[in-house]
Structures are given as structure tokens and as C-alpha cells.
Amino acid sequence: MDTVKPDPHDISDVYLTRTRAAIYVKCSTKTLERLAVDGDGPPMIRLGKRRVAYAKADLDAWMRSRTFKSNAHEAATREQRS
């Protein structure tokens, strides 16, 4: 059985376009755009005037930071941050 070795130059599994990032975090591209404007979204890499990318590790960390045990836990966490 042949095994396929990953291409070390293929970074598509490390960095995602906004469209692929939206699919990954299960939201719309418009939501990611709004979160970026509000400063509440995941860190992004500016590739050009209109093009951004997201590191998968940053998306994972951002989602973990938005994980709560309950609504009360979320409210208490938000209150501590402000």
C-alpha cells in the first residue's frame, strides 16, 4: 500500500482564506468581516488591500476563548473582561 507524503510547501492546512475560515468556524464570511471591524474576531493576516488569511491555530484559540459552560459563565467572563 502506497502512502502519500504531505507536500511540505502546501500551507493550505495551516492558513485559510476568509471563506474557508468561515466554513471552519461555521459562520458566514460577513460575520467574520463584521467581527474584524468590531475587533472581536480571530487574528487575521493582511495579504493585500482586500485579502486576508487566518491561521488555523488562531481560529482554534479564538473558538476556545469563546467556550463557556453556561450563559451565566459567559456573562461573568464578559463582565471580568470589561
Write the layout of secondary structure elements.
Elements: E1 15-17, H1 18-25, H2 29-38, E2 45-46, E3 52-55, H3 56-65, H4 71-81
Antiparallel strand pairs: 1-3, 2-3
CATH class: Mainly Alpha
| Straight-line distance between termini | 56 Å
Net shape = globular
Sheet with the most strands: spatial strand order? 1-3-2
Low-pLDDT stretches are none
Which percent band covers the strand fraction? 5-15%
Pfam families: HTH_17
Domain Helix-turn-helix: 15-66
Protein name: AlpA family phage regulatory protein
InterPro entries: DNA-bd_dom_put_sf, HTH_17
Structure characterization notes:
- The protein is mainly alpha-helical and 82 residues long.
- It has a single domain, classed as Arc Repressor Mutant, subunit A (Orthogonal Bundle), CATH 1.10.10.
- It contains four helices and three strands.
- It has a three-stranded antiparallel β-sheet.
- Strand 2 (45-46) and strand 3 (52-55) form a beta hairpin.
- It is globular, with a radius of gyration of 16 Å.
- The model has no long low-confidence stretch (mean pLDDT 87).
- Residues 15-66 form the Helix-turn-helix domain.
- InterPro entries: DNA-bd_dom_put_sf (IPR009061), HTH_17 (IPR041657).
- This is AlpA family phage regulatory protein.
